Amino acid sequence: MNHPTFQFNHEGKVILVVEDDYDIGDIVENYLKKSDFQVKRAMNGQQALEIQANTPIDLIILDVKLPQLSGWEVLTTLRHSKQTPVIMLTALDQEIDKVMALRMGADDFVVKPFNPNELVARVQAVLRRSTHHARKSAPTTLYFKNIEINTENHSVFIKSEDVAAQAILPLNLTLTEYKILLLMIQQPFKVFSRSELMLQCLPDRDALERTVDSHVSKLRKKLEDQQLFNLLINVRGVGYRLDQAR
Questions:
Q1: Are strands 168-170 and 38-42 parallel, antiparallel or unpaired?
Q2: Cα separation, 8 vs 172, whole angstroms
Q3: Alpha-carbon distance 142 to 94, whole Å?
Q4: pTM of the model
Q5: Domain ranges of the chain
Q6: Which residues pair with 170 in a beta bridge?
């Protein structure tokens, strides 16, 4: 008996291959292109984050051992603001690595050496699942006090405390300011060190900690312009947090 086959149209889907081994990267790229995927390449973790931040990516094939930033660090950074599907690649055939990858938010895990055709099949399967999930999911909106963030279109709004006015005003932020605010609203009780904010929110790997202070200062000023005082708190000697007290 012939079973119906679900045809998933992946034409035009963009796959980011993050692999510092040229030969392995070339093999993966060639097999993906044979299956009508578009491919972008990154040779290290920092480059991967920069590409992902500036280019629409449908799925990432991510090696664990990378220069500058490891695959684990890249995955952690991605999951703070993005749900782009990720398949981890590693030469370590250890159960703990598989468990860690899934717990950290990876969608699949492939051990080297691997069959390129199998990897392509896994890419197709993960994309099918993520596409189905995206169709069922509503746009994500986060709230903190009278701040509203829509993570689908990167918009931020402030609801006026004047009940009579009922005004909802857009808050114009730079991309870095948006990332800082989103990250902190996702974990409002957490104190973020400058190095954490620098790693997760600033695209420039060579940025200094005082650059973080500058971005936070400008973000605080914009919040205060909307009458949101004492919201972004400096924790002396540690970093910054959002104030939950009213």
A1: unpaired
A2: 39
A3: 37
A4: 0.54
A5: 14-136, 141-242
A6: 157
